[in-house]
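User:
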Amino acid sequence: MEILAHTLWTTAGVRKINAVSKKRGKLYRMNMFFTAFWGVFPDLFAFTIPFLISFYKVVIGQQEFGSFATRHQVADGFNLSHTLYQYSHSLVIWIIVFIFLILILRRPPWVILGWALHILIDIPSHSLAFFPTPFLFPISEYRFPYGVAWSNYWFMIINYGALLIVWGTILIKKYTRIQKLDKFI
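Assistant: Predicted structure:
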């Protein structure tokens, strides 16, 4: 899935978790900004450095701008992305980092649940043909074989339709709550 959808799903999840925590009287609230950052972190980690290297090659004239934008060039020029992608899209690596941070911080770093959500969303939304999600790396090379490419138009319609319903519900509830408060003022 692409970065905008990951951000919208992550922030919707944080809003729900915070609302449930508030109802149950929990004191901890997840920070929406940092959780959203961790929700897009796997893609930023995998693609930012290779993108900057490729962009630098365009600037200094080692690569043409037209070839920079094509999918073929991305596949050929971003070999580093494939390596970084394995680490940033692995639930095994995520668990290791999560446990390591618990030991250092002496509390669970709940904001990095955005990273785990990113991986879980990517498993079924990536086909084997283009960046299949290596969620068991380095333990196994298994990739989910029934994934659907998130770039398919019908998948995008369903995904953003579902996001529209989720965020519409969030905004309607928020607006209704504000209207109820106005009646008491």
